[in-house]
């Protein structure tokens, strides 16, 4: 378990992630991280955008249904 300390950053509050956490998240400066609701009201910090995942599932469904049409259009 890593302990984070809430600090004042300008007019906001923030936390500084230790190297171990940044490495595990495979994050770099400027990357976006998402704080999503987890089970039992807990939060989860992740580099993956859950809304993007939903959009990709829809896109994959469309590509699967219209595979022949998309293949013909690619010619």
Topology diagram in text:
Blueprint: E1 6-9, E2 12-15, H1 19-25, E3 34-37, E4 43-46, H2 50-65, H3 67-73
Give average pLDDT, whole number.
Answer: 89
The helix content is 40-55%
Rg on CA atoms, Å: 19 Å
Please count the beta strands (DSSP E, at least 2 residues each): 4
Shape: elongated
The SS-based structural class is: alpha+beta
Give structural notes.
The N and C termini lie far apart (54 Å). It is built from three helices and four strands. It is an alpha+beta fold and 75 residues long. Helix content is 40%, strand content 21%. A hairpin with a 2-residue loop joins strand 1 and strand 2.
Brief summary of the model shown:
By secondary structure, this protein is of the alpha+beta class.
